[in-house]
Amino acid sequence: MPDVEKPLILYVEDEIFTQHLVETALSDAGYDVWTASDGNEALEKLASAGSALRGLVTDVDLGACPNGWEVANEARAAMPGVPVVYVSGASAHEWSAKSVPGSQIVPKPFAPDQIVAVIALLLGKADL
C-alpha cells in the first residue's frame, strides 16, 4: 500500500547494488519507493499502484522482457501524465526514438542524486 503522505515512485533496476543506492537516495528525499528487478515485476507493481503512482524511473536494459521502454509505455497507457525517467548505459542512443514523450534519460554511470533531481524536476511539471 502506498504511503499517502509521500509521492510514490516505482524504480525498476536489475542491478541490485544500483537499485539499493537509488532507492535510498529517493527515500531520503521524501519519496515512497517501490522497487522491481525486472519488467514483469514492474508491470505487476504498476497495476498495484494504480493512480497512486507519481513517477517511474526505469533502467532500459532489464535482461528479460519487457524492457524499460515497454514498462514506460504500459505506465503511460494506464496513467498518461506520469513522469518517466530512463537510465541506461548501452541504450541511451535509442531514447529519442523509443521513449515516451516528455521523459528524461540519465546515462549510466550516474550519481543517485541525479535521479532525485530529475524526478523532482519532472514532478514539478507533472499534471497528474
Structure description:
- The protein is of the alpha/beta class and 128 residues long.
- It has a single domain (8-125), classed as Rossmann fold (3-Layer(aba) Sandwich).
- Helix 1 links the parallel strand 1 and strand 2.
- A 5-stranded parallel beta sheet has the order 2-1-3-4-5, with helices on both faces.
- The protein has helices at 16-28, 39-49, 68-78, 95-98, 112-125; strands at residues 8-12, 32-36, 53-59, 84-88, 104-107.
- Helices cover 41% and strands 20% of the residues.
- The chain is built from 5 helices and 5 strands; from the N terminus they run βαβαβαβαβα.
Structural class: alpha/beta
Q: Reading side by side through the largest sheet, how are the strands ordered?
A: 2-1-3-4-5
Tell me the name of the CATH homologous superfamily: Response regulator
Continuous helix count: 5
Question: What's a quick, concise take on this entry?
Answer:
The protein has 128 residues and is of the alpha/beta class. The chain contains five helices and five strands.
Task: Produce the secondary structure layout.
Elements: E1 8-12, H1 16-28, E2 32-36, H2 39-49, E3 53-59, H3 68-78, E4 84-88, H4 95-98, E5 104-107, H5 112-125
Parallel strand pairs: 1-2, 1-3, 3-4, 4-5
